[in-house]
Amino acid sequence: MELASVARVAVSAATYAIDKPYDYLIPEKLAGKVHPGVRVAVPFGKGNRTSEGFVLTVGQDGKREGLKAVTEVLDDESVLGPQQIKLALWLRERYFCTLYTAVKVLLPAGLWYRLREICTLSVDRETALVSGANDRESRVLEALCAHGGSTELETLRLACGSGAAGVARELQRRGLLTIESSADRKVSDKRASQVSLAVGAEEAMAAVELKKRGAPMRYEVIKLLCTMGSALSTDVCYFTGATARTLKSLEKSGLITLAPAEVLRVPKPEAADGAPIVLSEEQQAAYDGVVERMDQGGASCALLYGVTGSGKTQVYLKLIHALLERGKTALVMVPEIALTPQLMRIFNSHFGREVAILHSSLSAGERCDEWKRARAGEARVVVGTRSAVFAPLPSLGLIILDEEQEPSYKSEQNPRYHAREVAKFLCAQHKTLLLLGSATPCLESRYAAETGKYSFFSLPGRDNHLFSLRQRYNEQVLPRVAVVDMKDELRRGNGGTISAPLAAMLEEAIDRGEQAILFLNRRGSSRMVSCGECGLTPTCPRCSVHLTYHSANRRLMCHYCGWSQPLPDQCPSCGGLLDFFGAGTQKVEEELRTLFPGTAVLRMDADTVSAVHSHESILEKFCRERIPILLGTQMVAKGLDFENVTLVGAVSADQLLYTGDVHAAERAFSLLTQVVGRAGRGKKAGRAVIQTFTPDNDVIRFSASQDYDSFYRQ
């Protein structure tokens, strides 16, 4: 029996209940194109609806009967390697998603395809309108005629019901219409022309030398190419002043060749050369310990615990330098997009073009091209947020998870993976080191570091998993923290959100030309709106949570699903007056402008950070123009390093403490400790204020004293 070539495919149309790899025959015309890791179009289901799929394996099988065939190959080369396919299989089992969903999450959105089935009439309009054998066929043919004789099959489904696909395929069998598949990439590659000399340099120069005066642009182009060898047409035109017409003329003369080439959309780095890395004695000890673990080989995991400002980033840089010298690559992950601009400037200053950045604020084209650079080995260091854990780095030697305790490392979309768990799997797969870094590690990581019990790893005899940095870099002192009891403020008649001590410190800092960061983990104006007569509180019809009032657009908004409605003038139930409770960043911003008229205030929250790179522009403006006050949510609590910031204020610590979450105390301690650590990172001493109605709470006390060890033991 002749064996048939069969591909095992993860199909996008397969739901979780029927999810499995499906076998498809490989036609002879596609035999050389179907490989593991490429995407294909295949018929699926009783209606043979065209669906996208990923090829997992290719083999030989004697069973031909009943197998459908691959109809089209969508990729010229494999987009997933064997290790990434293994990762996808693990994601499916670990996070209960379909195999196709697991594979798709590994790729940037710019590489995704949109499959369309186009129905086109094969007969004229009059013949089509009288050819329906029943009402269903007549409706489909009438809908197709109404759309000009050609439309998507999905459009016919919407117009004629779910059975339209089967009817259309029956009409295709009878020759009344044709159905063709079309695959469109969400983001196309950026193309340009590569200009090269078609003849020797001496011959080319001799050909243009005689006509140098009459055609100076031709001469300049050839002169540049003799120096560079080849260049993109855009660069040639930029440096010489030539036009596309000049290049066409030279090509027609046989002096140059123009070949299509892909241009990668790479964000421009803004950084000078990095200063040499000088580690303190404590940093050097941590560095040596981590390198020793790396040298032992095999999968490993360690925790770098360092107080805020202790210089964990310097240790990261030194480790990556050592890795690159060994021919390895490194992945550095941060929890917030807002942290990447400063971090990228630091990494660019040390590694230049070898750094790629991956996060959701990049355009789809930039993200796609950065992913390509990482896969091709052009970028040996990747810095990014949660999804960067899927960067296809070859020869992976180290994964660094900075601020590893952050909940933003957990995906809220299917598959609901945690980047820390995926990183552990990758390190077990590549037999390399996962380094967790934080000033406030999550309790699980700290316990695992003390006991040596990390999941995925079997580490007998290795007892040193915890490396500590107890002192700030360059002997800087931790900020002095004052805890303000807001109950006393109310007794003194201050019903605002800014206490008298904090207002006085802000005024002193402004007078000295210093800067302050204020943290409030609630955007909007008022946390809740309620009727003073009947007590009605507007809630989200989808999520059943209280709506938050936003004064900027006078709307009530749900911060979970985004649903909103205009603020009613009066209670819709009884007509009573509405009262406003709690405070968000918009309300605090208004209060600051009243307290300090003429003083610039920057607000950084999900309402102001929306466009691409907008977080970078806010932070750059705060640094460059020395704006006195930066007010924000958790975006300002971590990773920021401004030497002129000497004052930090936690406006309402209680909002963090009393939430319906088992990790509320741990998260509150982490955020308060992190935001306090933003002060005094330069030569000037720092101060911090924590405003609370419960000053005796242990979390508040430990945060004020920056005492993580006591918090952990409790």
The averaged pLDDT comes out at 86
Structural class based on helices, strands and sheet pairing? alpha/beta
Largest sheet strand order: 14-15-13-16-17-12-18
The dominant shape is globular
How many helices? 24
- Portion in strands: 15-25%
State the helical fraction: 25-40%
Termini, distance in Å? Answer: 71 Å
* Rg for CA atoms: 31 Å
What does this structure look like?
- A hairpin with a 6-residue loop joins strand 23 and strand 24.
- The chain has a seven-stranded parallel beta sheet with strand order 14-15-13-16-17-12-18, sandwiched between helices. The chain has a six-stranded parallel beta sheet with strand order 19-29-28-20-27-26, sandwiched between helices. Strands 2-1-4-3-5 form a five-stranded antiparallel beta sheet.
- The chain has 24 helices and 29 strands.
- The model has no long low-confidence stretch (mean pLDDT about 85).
- Helix 7 packs antiparallel against helix 8, helix 8 crosses helix 9 (about 235-240) and helix 11 (about 280-295) packs parallel to helix 12 (about 310-325).
